[in-house]
Specification:
Radius of gyration: 18 Å
Mean pLDDT: 94
Shape: globular
Strand content: 35-45%
Low-confidence stretches: none
Length: 212
């Protein structure tokens, strides 16, 4: 979806989406790439590839979102990934990742959000403070039936400081943190601004940008 939106923004934009599994890539081709114009489709490449390999496509901007890099639980492996990204970026390139945390994110809780036609459940089943590993699941209720474990996340909960330090270690010249603001009810408002200090929240989302 992001690769397609980037191609739609400007006729000079090209994008590459990298993933290990063909199934979601085929889904993306059917539901996203297919809706682009012929010219836009020519500027989007979906590539089955391991990001831990050393020949990633050259880019001006690289992103890892939906907290996908949390899958890398060992520091040396995450550093290897960041190093690969750094080497693939062109001069003055940017590497952007999202990150979440907060005191509530280490609790074993199930949070539900009701929508018009379904209910969404975010289930924090376990967090280990010794290893910082966590296991989360997403469930849905639709037409009086609850679908358990539709998505599962076996992660390490990385901190903002750890990610910034790793970016600098592999060669990035600078890092910036973009913190989400809040609305009148204290909920995230989807607007992110560069900050020097965060806020002690139950739950927060931020972006970290490393500049080459």
């Amino acid at each position: 979806a992001i690769s397609c939106e980037w191609a739609k923004l400007d006729k000079e934009h090209k994008s590459c989406g990298l993933y290990l599994d063909r199934e979601p890539m085929d889904y993306g081709r059917e539901h996203y790439v297919s809706k682009l114009s012929n010219n836009q489709q020519k500027r989007v490449a979906l590539i089955k590839k391991d990001v831990l390999t050393y020949d990633l496509p050259a880019a001006d901007i690289a992103i890892a979102v939906n907290f996908s890099y949390f899958f890398f639980k060992k520091r040396e492996i995450l550093k290897r990934y960041f190093d690969n990204v750094y080497k693939s970026l062109n001069h003055d390139g940017l590497f952007v990742v999202d990150i979440f945390g907060g005191t509530q994110c280490t609790d074993a809780i199930e949070d539900k959000t009701k929508h018009k036609n379904f209910t969404y459940y975010w289930d924090q089943k376990n967090y280990d403070p010794v290893s910082s590993e966590a296991y989360f699941e997403i469930h849905f209720r639709y037409k009086n039936k609850k679908y358990e474990g539709v998505f599962a996340y076996d992660w390490r909960m990385w901190s903002i400081l750890e990610i910034r330090e790793l970016m600098l270690e592999v060669g990035f010249q600078d890092t910036k943190v973009y913190w989400e603001g809040t609305d009148k009810k204290g909920r995230g408002n989807g607007e992110f601004r560069a900050v020097e200090k965060g806020e002690a929240c139950l739950s927060w989302i931020a972006y970290i940008a490393g500049s080459k």
